[in-house]
Amino acid sequence: MPENRKIDPSPPRPRVVPALYGGTAALVLILVIANTWWSIDQDRHLTIRAEQASGLVAVRLLDEHVTQTLHDAERNLQTVAHAIEVRGRDHEVSDAEVRDILTRAQPFNTILKSLQFVNTHGVASVSSIDYPAFQTDADDRKYVPSMLATPQRRESVIGRPFQRFYDNELIVPVARNLYDGRGRYLGIISTDISVAYFSAVYARVAKDSHAVVALFSDSGFVIVRSPFNVRYLGMDIGTAPELAMIAHGPTEGFFDSSRFLDDDNGSVSIHTYRKIPGYPITVSYARNRDDVLAAWRVRARDRILVAVALVGLLALLARYLLLYLARLRAADASLRASDEKLRRSEAQFIDIFQYSPVPLALIDISNDRVVEANGAYLRLFGYTREEALGKSVQELKLWVDFNQRVPYIAQLRSEQFVEHFEAGLQNRHGVALTCLLSARILASSEGTLSVFSPIDITHLRAIEHEIRILNEQLEERVRERTESLEKANEELRSTFTALQQMQSDLLRAEKLAALGALVSGVAHELNTPIGNSITLATTLEDEAMRAQRDFAGGTMRRSTLDHFLETSRTGITVLVRNLERAASLIVSFKQVAVAESNDTRRCFELNTALRGVVDALEPLYRDTPHALQLDLGAPVEMETYAGALDQILANCLANSIRHGFANGHPGQMRLATRRVGQDDVEITFSDNGLGIAANAIDRVFDPFFTTTLGQGSSGLGMHIVYNLVTGVLHGKIIVQSAPGQGTTIVIVIPIRAPGPLEDGAIPLTGKANGAIAQQR
Q1: What angle do CA 768, 774, 776 make, to 5 degrees?
Q2: Mean pLDDT for the chain overall
Q3: d(Cα 129, Cα 167) in Å, to the nearest integer?
Q4: How much is the pLDDT for 518?
Q5: What is the pLDDT of residues 591-632, one digit of tens each?
Q6: Is 486 exposed, middle or buried (0-12, 13-18, 19+ CB in 10 A)?
Q7: Can the peptide bond before residue 227 be classed as cis, meaning omega within 30 degrees of 0?
Q8: Binning pLDDT at 50, 70 and 90, where does residue 568 land?
Q9: How far from each other are the two terminal CA atoms of the chain, in whole angstroms?
């Protein structure tokens, strides 16, 4: 400023500068507070959105898991329904045929463990891999009455979860209506999905994420909830307002609730849900909002502390400005008269620019050179003042990708300002920084300048990157656990194959043992008639030699001849009777032995075969106080496996003698037969012995189960009987017993077993019947 500048003698102008600076300070304070609040609020929204994204990943994975399981269940039901439809195209399908198909079609895996059939009268049958087929009631299956009342319903129904009474396992039923090939309504078939299969997966997800994971139906009952709480199993949540919101909402979404599927102390949880496409069920994933926002609170506290420090600094600056303005008011006239004081005032304003905690720089738009930069700017990029001032942004290599600067400059030139433009910058050491750029063009005597302010958000973007990595790691863990589950399933299949082989070996060993017992018994039986025959033959030989000597010596008398003839007649009669007894035993043993050793499908008359087996087994009880009564019905021509039938009768008789009459008291056994309908025959074996305890009746057919373990019993007898009846003879078996009331075993088998007649077997028709009868 020139030294001879004249002081304006005019009255002083109104003092608007203090108010302007006070307003500016207030504006800066408001901007700092607003920026802090905005940063905290944005961080909070990003944290919640990241949690929602993580929840979506979880529910989508659980959706795939549930959908695959339900598809498997529907495919099993569709396979059974198709088999029944095919069978019912040419005749009316009976309940027994439906149960037979269910028994042969029962699933062999740990997820779908059983098949059920409920006829139109509400009578239910269950067939599972753990228990044999048997009838039961359907009280636990609440969907049965409604489905029976609406036979036209074609879609599958997911029932309310419950605990099965015969194995106490928690299951979820999937059911559908059943029709034969001519469209006749037969009832309901269903399969059970093990809740444990869902619970294991949901428990792992809940444990890894500290979340509450649940599966519930649209009608309002809970199927699975982890962490497990028994009060939620099958719980009705139909009145919950959240359920109505989900029903009218999109396929997947989010909501906050403090009580939905959680009995916590009222804290709010972030719920993520997804409706299962094609099924009336929904999967949800919830985490406590306080847990989700814990890290955000720490960051918010740090931001607030920085903001408080900045506000304090601004307050000090404002106080300094007020003092400075007070001095300006006191020396206003001298300031206008003194260039030195004016330069000092300008320097003080430059100090404010320099000491601002926000990075600031003045850049000449015409040549992109840095005109001025404050300390925060220089610290952010690592330059000294000398290195930065006068250099262009190209020379400083400020932009990581210089092409990214093109839209920034275009917006700045067109709108005269830029706010929150995200760009990739770098410091002098090449370290990349993610910054939000704000700029404004200022008109100056030195040219067109822009105030350039880059805010470093690298840390915030790093947090977002960590969240993405966590999501990827979650997907990898799910994949690894799926592979582990497949490996475990393969090991279970190998173990099951080995168990089947062991059962087959034990069955052959038991057959050989039974055949040995028959050989021993028949040998003992043959000893008596053959011994008697030898004795009589020797006696007759002696009598004949004596008569021959008397006749040769001429001493033969009439009385001697009469005695010889009487003795011969009596001896021959007894000899013939003993030889017939021996022949009968040999024929019976031959029939049983051939059936046991060959075990082929052949034709025979049931009553004749049973009498032959009874004769062969007579040594087992002849020397005991027990008796076997036969009550055989009309003759029945069979075409099945006689060896299996003989083995069944031998095991039942041995069980009665060993277990039913263990107290030594005389006992009565009864074997009865009767024809059932046109295709089946019923064989009943009963005794009046000790009976079976209530806690053992359901385990009679289990392998290696016996009440006399260590006393000579292997526990395989009735297990073999069950396998022979259901597997070889294609029938069914029921055991009825009570302590002190004896035991009754009812076996129903088809007269003609499925499959072709064995080569060499003689059918019981025409002349073949006469040949067999004559041979016997």
Answers
A1: 105
A2: 79
A3: 11
A4: 55
A5: 445 444 445 788 999 998 898 888 878 877 877 888 999 999
A6: exposed
A7: yes
A8: confident
A9: 147
Residue 145 gets which letter from DSSP? H
| Spatial separation of the C-alpha atoms in residues 451 and 440, rounded to whole Å | 5
Question: How many other CB atoms sit within 10 Å of the CB of residue 578?
Answer: 19
- Among residues 184, 190, 188, 187, the alpha carbon closest in space to that of 87 is found at 184
Q: Which two tokens stand for residue 630?
A: 């036969």
- What pLDDT, on a 0 to 100 scale, did the predictor assign at position 341? 58
DSSP conformation class of 164: -
517, 523 contact by CB (below 8 A): no
- Got the DSSP string for 567-590? HHHHHHHHHHHHHHHHHHHHHHHH
Alpha-carbon distances, residue 175 vs 44, 156, 203 (angstroms): 46, 6, 26
* Residues 772 and 764 sit within 8 Å (Cβ to Cβ): yes
* 27 phi-psi bin (left φ>0, alpha ψ -120 to 50, beta other): alpha
Q: Name which of 532, 522, 524, 664 is nearest 593 in CA terms.
A: 522
CB 218 within 8 Å of CB 281: yes
The residues, ordered by sequence, that sit 6+ positions from 629 with a Cβ below 8 Å of its Cβ are 668, 669, 670, 671
Q: Write the CA distances from 483 to 112, 194, 487, 604, integer angstroms.
A: 20, 20, 6, 54
**Helix, coil or strand: residue 271:** strand
Give 151's Cβ-side CA count (13 Å radius): 12
Checking if the pLDDT of 131 tops 70, the result is no
Give pLDDT, residue 508: 63
Considering the entire predicted model, what is its pTM? 0.39
Q: Where on the phi/psi map is residue 620: left (φ > 0), alpha (ψ -120 to 50), or beta?
A: alpha
Residue whose tokens read 């006689």: 642
Instruction: Enumerate residues 6+ apart whose C-beta is below 8 A from 250.
Output: none
- Overall average pLDDT of the 282-304 stretch: 88
pLDDT in tens, 1-26: 333 333 344 444 445 555 666 677 77
User: 3-class DSSP state for residue 419?
Assistant: strand
Residue positions counted in the chain: 776
Q: Which residues pair with 737 in a beta bridge?
A: 743
Do the Cβ atoms of 615 and 644 come closer than 8 Å?
no
